[in-house]
Amino acid sequence: MNNLNNGYRGNITISNRAILKIAGKAIQEAEEVKALMEGKTKRKNKDDFYKAIDLQINGGELAVHIFPIFVLGTPLHQLAQLLQQKIKSSLEILTGLKVSQVNVTVVGIIPEQI
């Protein structure tokens, strides 16, 4: 859990699960992401993407690490950068927390379905 203390009326706490759900929703919006790896588990259900996100909180800053499988066809570096931007902006806008890193390790590609 991450506590935000603005000193006004008390504490605000955002659970790790809520943070992961926000990041997962940002990933779901990218149609080119077909799965996320969580160890040896491949999560294909987009509603479960949040379960495969590695979140680290250090001094009020978030670091996110994901391991996506993309559809072949779009340059991988562009997709990875798009995900970084979507995750960072979604988390910062919706939680008010600073995102220091969004690490994307592409672990696979699959051919485009015709």
UniProtKB/TrEMBL annotation:
<dbReference type="InterPro" id="IPR005531">
    <property type="entry name" value="Asp23"/>
</dbReference>
<protein>
    <recommendedName>
        <fullName>Asp23/Gls24 family envelope stress response protein</fullName>
    </recommendedName>
</protein>
<comment type="similarity">
    <text>Belongs to the asp23 family.</text>
</comment>
<dbReference type="Pfam" id="PF03780">
    <property type="entry name" value="Asp23"/>
</dbReference>
